[in-house]
Design goal:
By secondary structure, this protein is mainly α. It is built from 6 helices and no strands.
């Protein structure tokens, strides 16, 4: 009788241990699936953010030549500034990846130079076409800034998950790498350009 009780107690302990192990495995699998899905969602949000920036930049690319043509009529001897804007636009259109961010920052800087020209040419300031194009570009720049903030926010969240334990284990298995923020590269790009004659 004592052996039977001992065997049944041993069997019960074995069953309890097996149940605990199975529950632990189920919890680990559930956590892994949850972490995987969260990382995948963040990856998709980052890609969506970049796509939104790309759409806004395409609109800006289309607007810049019209703006340059309008300015050309008033500022004929400012060809260097106008050529720099067009060159920066073309470079931004053909760039990709992190190079695209740098090219976009360069384009933003040359556009500031273009708008600084209006101070030297009062007739240009009064031109309805220029004002309309300038307002459209300002609106686009605001939309781009908003898209950058969204993108950078999702990149921050993704990068944090990639860095933190234990989600970094899942991120490694997924092959996820930290993404770069879309920001200004230098202090020169943060200042307003000066146009001198």
């Amino acid at each position: 009788m004592a052996n039977a009780l001992l065997i049944s107690t041993g069997a019960i302990i074995g069953i309890v241990v097996a149940v605990i192990v199975v529950l632990l495995i189920v919890v680990i699998i559930a956590w892994y699936i949850s972490a995987y899905n969260k990382l995948q969602r963040l990856k998709n949000l980052v890609e969506e953010g970049w796509s939104t920036i790309d759409v806004q930049l395409k609109k800006r690319y289309d607007l810049v030549p019209n703006l340059v043509e309008t300015v050309k009529g008033y500022a004929k001897h400012e060809s260097g500034t106008l050529e720099a804007v067009i060159a920066a636009r073309n470079a931004a259109m053909t760039a990709s990846g992190e190079g695209k961010m740098a090219a976009e920052n360069a384009l933003s800087g040359t556009l500031k130079s273009l708008f600084a020209l209006q101070e030297a040419y009062p007739d240009l300031k009064a031109n309805a076409n220029f004002i309309s194009l300038q307002n459209q570009l300002k609106s686009l720049e605001n939309e781009i800034a908003s898209a950058r903030r969204y993108y950078n926010g999702t990149v921050k969240e993704l990068n944090t998950k990639i860095d933190l334990f234990p989600s970094n284990i899942v991120a490694k298995r997924m092959g996820l790498e930290k993404r770069a923020y879309f920001e200004l590269d230098s202090s020169e790009e943060r200042t307003n350009p000066q146009v001198k004659f």
